[in-house]
Design goal:
This protein is α+β, with helices and mostly antiparallel strands and 171 residues long. The protein has a single domain, classed as Thiol Ester Dehydrase, Chain A (Roll). Strands 1, 2, 3, 4, 5 and 6 form a 6-stranded antiparallel sheet that branches. A hairpin with a 3-residue loop joins strand 3 and strand 4. The radius of gyration is 17 Å and the shape is globular. The N terminus is likely disordered.
Length: 171
């Protein structure tokens, strides 16, 4: 489903609700649960590609996240419904780089973004392995229908603009 009609970017992959257990002392969703919500989005995207529970159990292949970067744009609170969208930024024979956005489902504001690099792996050897042709075809189908422009947050680097101090080579 394309979420553009709701004023969002990317293709919708997951919907959820902020649970009471996810709320921290600041009375908003704790950072750990943003990652969990995005991870649910990753799982849903994998299903679109054909990486299902059956795929993992019978073929003994899966993906491992090797890098991620989350930005927190605006808080979500208990009971808020959210939407996760995804765009594939790039992929090759063993890797997939994706960018996800989390929106407040009712008010439509961008709550957070997450960028992930995943590797396809053999669970038997615990080593990177090429995507099988059917999964590669599923990724290609997804990319063929996505469209859109690169998000401003994609590839961002954390930096203190005018630091009072920084480690050598940081700035």
């Amino acid at each position: 489903m394309n979420a553009d009609a709701a004023g969002t970017s990317g293709r919708e992959v997951f919907r959820g609700t902020v649970l009471a257990d996810w709320i921290d002392l600041n009375d908003h969703m704790n950072v750990a649960y943003y990652v969990l919500a995005f991870d649910h989005g990753v799982d849903a995207l994998w299903e679109e590609f054909g990486i299902t529970t059956d795929y993992v159990e019978t073929r003994r292949m899966s993906t491992f996240a090797v890098e991620s970067h989350v930005t927190y744009q605006r808080e979500l609170r208990e009971g808020d419904e959210y939407i996760v969208t995804s765009d594939v930024l790039a992929y090759d024979e063993k890797r997939l780089h994706q960018f996800m956005r989390m929106y407040h489902a009712v008010e439509g504001y961008l709550a957070a973004t997450s960028e992930w690099m995943n590797l396809h792996v053999s669970l038997d050897t615990r080593r990177v392995a090429p995507w099988p042709p059917d999964i590669l075809a599923g990724i290609a189908r997804w990319v063929g229908g996505q469209g859109g422009a690169l998000a401003a947050e994609a590839g961002s680097r954390m930096v203190v603009p005018r630091p009072l101090w920084s480690i050598e080579g940081y700035t």
